[in-house]
Write a structure and sequence with these properties.
With 188 residues, the chain is α/β, with parallel strands linked by helices. It has a domain of 126 residues: Rossmann fold, CATH 3.40.50. The chain is built from seven helices and five strands, in the order ααβαββαβαβαα. The C terminus is likely disordered. The structure holds iron/sulfur cluster. The site of iron/sulfur cluster (SF4) has 12 residues, from α3 and α5.
Length: 188
């Protein structure tokens, strides 16, 4: 015991001082600030499954986990199109969902953005167009950004969402726009 105390007293504190903070590393906070600068509020997304196999939904769900931390970026999902800025549409649009998708689009206040997700949302995918499906989302409502993949990764989905925000009419009025950083931090 005495030997240990002597050792502690003679060596002193060897812990290195903490490094200074580096503001350039604050990607998430800057994204949050810029989304608020463009929209004046958090980005609210209404997700619509227009006929997906649910593979794309699994990747969307991953966006809310602690790795991608979507709410930390100031982006959240809402239950009503009347509260939404952006519609995130998955799947080929089945004939049963065609009217519902149109009505959801009409219920979303302007200016609204639409992101079509997955190969099915972009092109109709393996389902194509038939008596049962209208094919790609753009066959039913206007689309701003299409994110391919079967399914696209959470990072690609996030890039698609941020691309839509950066190219929106609201953002065109913002001088800060060209500096929006679309790079997504890799999972830690
Ligand atoms: S793109 Fe692939 S994962 Fe997404 S709904 Fe179509 S088949 Fe499923």
């Amino acid at each position: 015991m005495l030997k240990t105390l002597h050792q502690i007293a003679s060596i002193g504190i060897v812990t290195e001082p903490a490094p200074d903070i580096d503001d350039t590393l604050r990607i998430r906070e800057r994204l949050n600030e810029r989304i608020r600068a463009v929209l004046g509020r958090a980005l609210c997304i209404r997700h619509i499954d227009a006929g997906s196999c649910n593979g794309c939904e699994l990747e969307i769900h991953a966006l809310n986990n602690p790795i991608y931390n979507l709410e930390g970026l100031g982006i959240r999902f809402v239950a009503s199109p009347r509260h939404a800025d952006l519609l995130l549409v998955t799947g080929p649009v089945s004939r049963h969902m065609e009217a519902a998708l149109r009505r959801t689009f009409e219920a979303t206040p302007d200016p609204k953005l639409v992101v079509a997700l997955g190969d099915c949302g972009c092109t109709g995918g393996i389902f194509g167009e038939s008596y049962a499906t209208c094919g790609r989302v753009e066959n039913v409502i206007p689309v701003d950004v299409a994110v391919p993949g079967c399914p696209p990764s959470p990072t690609r989905i996030l890039q698609g969402i941020l691309t839509a925000v950066a190219r929106s009419p609201a953002s065109a009025a913002s001088a800060d726009l060209d500096t929006i950083n679309l790079s997504v931090p890799p999972p830690e």
